[in-house]
Amino acid sequence: MSIFKRKRHTGIQYSGINPKGYHPSQLKFYIILLPLAAFMLLPMVFIFSHAFKPPDELFAYPPRFFVINPTFKNFTDLFSKMSSSGVPVSRYLFNSVVVTGVTIAASILVSSTAAYALSKKRFKLKQALFAINTVALMFVPIAVTIPRFLVIQRLGLMDTFWVHVLPALAMPVGLFLIKQFIDGIPDEIIEAARIDGANDLSIYFQIILPMIKPALATIAILTFQATWNNAETSSLFINDESLKTFAFYLTTLTSTSAGANTVAGQGMAAAASLIMFLPNLIMFFFLQSQVMSTMAHSGLK
Amino acid sequence: MVNNHIQRESKFKLWLNKEGSAYGFLSGYALMFIIFIVVPVLMAGLLSFTLFDTIQFPKFIGLKNYITLLTQDDIFMKYVLPNTIEFAVIVGPGGYILSFILAWILAQLPKLPRTIMALILYSPSMTSSIAMAVVWLTIFSGDQNGYLNSLLLNYNLIQAPIQWLQSPQYLMTIMIIVTLWSSMGVGFLAMLAGILEINPEMYEAGALDGISNRFQEIIYITIPSMRPQMLFGAVMAIVATFQAGAIGVTLSGANPTPQYAGQLIVNHIEDYGFLRYEMGYAAAVSVVLLLMVLLFARVANSLFGSNE
Q1: Which residues of B fall within a CB distance of 8 Å from A15?
Q2: Cα(A138)–Cα(B132) distance, rounded to whole angstroms?
Q3: Among B232, B236, B239, B220, residue whose Cα is nearest residue B194
Q4: CA distance B280 to B46
Q5: Do the chains contact at A145 and B269, CB–CB below 8 Å?
Q6: A46 shares contact with chain B (CB less than 8 Å)
Q7: What is the pTM of this model?
């Protein structure tokens, strides 16, 4: 473990955590990180490069990693095409955007109201309910796909818009993170507002919500990832092709193109996977500092 | 009688005044939580004691599903269970330790490079496995046009292209690598934030107490000071590991996977539930899966929980 050793100067003790600037002692970390980061980044770079390849490069032998003559052909192909059932690709994308937007808004509302109650209100079952939610952090949705299917069928949610939205709202980690964040708001602020005559709703809207923006941004990102990338809902609960999402459409591209291996299919799949990936990256890029400040409260005791 | 009624009504009103708004705020989330988490879990538990083909009403058969699972399901015992344990033990703790080490290294860097690196390391976990399937299928493609095959052929490391995703001896390894690649998720961010939150005075005090190198610092100061984040990270790693179970089917394009080489417990559930419509049996497998998650979480809890 020699990499962890460092000489300590007498006098100033310097832990090295969160340094303000560059220091030669950081060099060894860069030596470990840079090759690893490059390796981690390869598949991402590949998505970008592959999506802009013209057909002859997609199937060139030997295959080339980087694109030489970038073209938008794969994207124009993708959007000029109808799926095998006659639904235009833009329809899937539109569904994905609407579903994701509605789910994020609903998830923020539902999780933050519940988190406010669990953090700041006094009631008998408070501890018990929070404990149940904490156990549910371990919940693996994929394990109960079948009973979920039966529940959704029984409730008449099959083939509706809401089947995309409602199951995603039960997100224990979202409630957990917001609740921990609200715990950081001093009770005195809320007491003071109550003395001034504010009721619960105005406390929630005027005090809590503005103070927990970082937590809300985090929930927005987590919900976004869960919903935007979700293909199972469309394949299990939706038969109506015009209600399915873009993630589902991408699965149909990869499964057919793997067998048929058509040039057009490969290019379109590459373009579609870039469209799937890019919004994730952009969202995290802009919200990352909010996410980090939320994660500081994430401890599980 | 009337008096009693009024009293009860006022008691209810009192409760409503005191606690009503709390439940009002909770109601939306609670409803979704009950419908989509509590009820399915309870149903899985109940259905696991029945014979259920989705057409006829479930028939109670006691522990028969569990007995069949343990004694007669050769595929489960020979492939699914060992595969799941191998996958979970390597990907779970492996991804978790990797996340912690990388988070620790990142914490040693100034803010800008740290943020860029965190973005790079986190981005695989936010990418859907569907989008990545395109990449993996191209890289590991079985003909000579596959990127890996082409590379190895070029350097004469192999003589003929290898069917990476269809070969039982390679599929599991590829599944593990792909999942580890995307294991720097929410838990990783939580641990990074946890390390950055530790009060620098702790390290100074530790140095006075005779801590002489960074490794001791990690063991005696960093990890104990961020136990809550360590536990949160562990739970997230466990969930992500079991949730990633579909990767073998995505890569090989078939359920069951070639010679059951990449068959995990999640695929077994899907196989019985949606392909053979033996819902009762599939539910018993689900219960076993949920118990495995709980078992892993217990181990994590005994390592990092606040059990003083």
Answers
A1: 200, 203-204, 217
A2: 25
A3: B232
A4: 9
A5: yes
A6: yes
A7: 0.89
Residues of chain A contacting B41 with CB distance shorter than 8 Å = 139, 144, 147
Residue B211 contacts A where some CB pair is shorter than 8 Å: no
| Interchain contact, A269 vs B134, CB within 8 Å | yes
A-B contacts (CB, under 8 Å): 331
Cβ contacts of A111 on chain B, cutoff 8 Å: 29
Of A19, A144, A300, the CB nearest to B41: A144
What CATH class has B74-304?
A: mainly alpha
Q: How far is CA A3 from CA A25, A26, A28, A32, B85, in A?
A: 11, 11, 8, 10, 32
Whether omega before A62 lies within 30 degrees of 0, making that bond cis, reads yes
Residue B244 tokens, joined: 């990633």
Q: Which residue, chain included where needed, has tokens 């029984």?
A: A154
Residues B4, A284: Cα–Cα separation, whole Å? 59
Q: Decide if B130 and A228 are in contact by the 8 Å CB cutoff.
A: no
**CB proximity A282 to B under 8 Å:** no
Query: How confident is the model over A60-84, as pLDDT tens digits?
Result: 777 888 899 999 998 998 888 776 6
Strand-pair category, B50-51 with B59-60: antiparallel
Residue A105, chain B, CB below 8 Å: the answer is: no
Residue type, B160: A
A85 contacts: CB under 8 Å, gap ≥ 6:
A241
- Asked if B90 contacts B176 with a C-beta cutoff of 8 angstroms, the reply is yes
Q: What is the pLDDT of residues A161-188, one digit of tens each?
A: 999 999 999 999 999 999 999 999 999 9
pLDDT tens digits along A27-59: 889 999 999 999 889 888 999 999 999 988 888
Distance CA A157, CA A166 (A): 10
Q: What is d(CA B81, CA B268) in angstroms, rounded to the nearest whole number? A: 10
Out of A15, A110, A204, the one facing B203 most closely (by C-beta) is A15
Contact A37/B111, CB-based, under 8 Å? no
Domain A79-295, architecture per CATH: Orthogonal Bundle (1.10)
What are the backbone angles phi and psi of residue A185, rounded to the nearest 5°? -80, 125
Q: List the domain boundaries for chain B.
A: 74-304
CB A140 within 8 A of CB B293: yes
Instruction: Map residue B50 onto helix, strand or coil.
Output: strand
Residue-wise pLDDT for A17-32, tens only, equals: 788 888 888 888 999 9
CA distance B161 to B153: 7
Q: How far is B183 from B131, CA to CA, in rounded Å? A: 16
Contact B127, A279 (CB under 8 A): no
Closest approach of chain B CAs to the CA of A161, in angstroms?
16
**B124 and chain A in contact, CB less than 8 A:** yes
Q: Where are the domains of chain A?
A: 2-72, 79-295
Contacts of B194 in chain A (CB under 8 A): 295-296, 298-299
Contact B109 A29 (CB under 8 A): yes
Partners of B59 in the β-ladder: B51
Tokens of B79: 């492939």
- Asked whether the beta carbons of residue B203 and residue A13 sit closer than 8 angstroms, the reply is yes
